[in-house]
Amino acid sequence: MAPVAMMSTVPATDASTRPGCGGALTPAVLVHTIKRTDAIDEQQTEAYKKLEVLLTYSRQILTENDLGGYTIPAKGLYPYQWNWDSALVAMGWATFDEARAWEEMTKLFSAQWDDGMVSHIVFHKPSTTYFPGPEIWGSVEKPRKSTGITQPPVAAITVHKLYEQAVNKELALTKVRELFPKLLAWHRWFKTARDPENTGLVATLHPWESGMDNSPAWDEPLRNVPVDDIPPYVRADLTHVNSSMRPSQAEYDRFLTLVYRFRAVDYDCKQLYYLSPFRVTDLCTNSVLYRANLSLRWLAEMLGELDVVPEIDEWLEGFRVAFSSLYDPAVKMFKSKDQLTGKLLNASTSAGFLPLFARIATPSQAQELAATLEQWLSCVKYGIPSNDPNSADFEPLRYWRGPIWAIVNWMITDGLLAYGYDALAQRVESDTYELLGSGICEYYDPTDGKPAGGGSFSWTAAMCLAWLGKCATSA
Ligand SMILES: O=C(O)[C@@H](CO)O[C@H]1O[C@H](CO)[C@@H](O)[C@H](O)[C@H]1O
After folding, report:
1. Number of the ligand 1 atom closest to the C-alpha atom of 212
2. Sign of CA dihedral 23, 463, 459, 327
3. To test ligand 1's pocket by mutation, which of 86, 123, 206, 213 has the most ligand atoms within 8 angstroms of CB?
4. What is the per-residue pLDDT for 50?
5. Using CA atoms, how far apart are residues 335 and 124, in angstroms rounded to an integer?
6. pTM of the full predicted structure?
7. Looking at residue 139, what is its pLDDT?
8. CB atoms within 10 A of CB 143
9. Among this protein's residues, is 237 annotated catalytic?
10. Is 442 among the residues known to form the active site?
11. Which domain holds residue 250?
């Protein structure tokens, strides 16, 4: 790999040839040393230079993945607009082009369904490099051109952050006014379509909705999904990434079975909740939605939309009451739940730490989660693995069954800081910086830090800009 100081322009394809940061001066270390000393010494200046190279490269990735108002996650592998990717990517855009960040959100909501749902993928332009595309979802034509399922609702958190951090407050206010009713409609959809029995927590009906598609948490509920006689298909993902890193064929058969069953009722949200053979309480979706509701409430107050505040407060209270049922004190972790069997799911995954991001964990749960996280980190070189490194089904390179995802590291770090676990947060942040220094890719092997999955990956670049870059420069 070329030494980072010598790289002026950065190649955008092969993860193994992208710039490294080297050295031990991570943003977190920079922040801490600068707070202690006042002066910036030579070593720190050098570290800043390295960080700047990484930030420049990250901006370049977003720019190259910009297909006109929306950012694809990665060329070839993911050629459309993905929901939670876009919300996270907008945070990255906001660090150097606020107008473009708002555009990302506007474009995502341009495909909002009449019932309020915001799809997990929007098919703005045709592509042949991804399966299943619009023809399988039955949404080749407008007004749909999007999938009939959703993804973790990060958007309100993004809109809140974008507004708070905006330099151009006038533009920000216009955009918030425009987006607020759409966000509210989506959150109302979650309540009515995904919690029709008013349990306080929302259901996830497809592993793709969880954003953590082949998480070991879904093994059990997926076993109860029968494989229908679906049309033969060819997976496109395996032409981009080695099959040993991707979900299995058995999982894909079930993913597709669910799509065809949902399509058969035209994705009617009133029916899906009751007919889906896969229905779980996903920790990621519920944690993100809780936090997003806090943001929505903040936005409502800022806009003077006070009449909706009691409704949001009721949702928040419902979450708080029900969330405690997802905590497993025996293993000091939150667990997802199979709604169809009523059982907590065995797997301990990185989603189990997301109640920290939500701020819904109690202080004593937070303390136990921090201890669990420390134990996990003692088993791997870099954190945070997406699956418990002590478990038999830990696979360091298979997608959501072991690898590290920068977006999850950001969310958990944000939560650790909120609960006062600064040293642990710093460890995760430093690890992330070192990992990203070896390439801005989809995910990383926690045992050796090797970059893997898709290269030049948008949300990883966005985390570099919105999290690591900001953290160092705000010192
Ligand atoms: O594997 C796939 O085909 C898609 C299916 O939605 O899912 C992966 O890529 C998306 C785009 O980056 C992410 O949004 C998901 O979280 C991640 O699991």
Report:
1. 18
2. positive
3. 213
4. 83
5. 36
6. 0.93
7. 83
8. 11
9. no
10. yes
11. 15-473
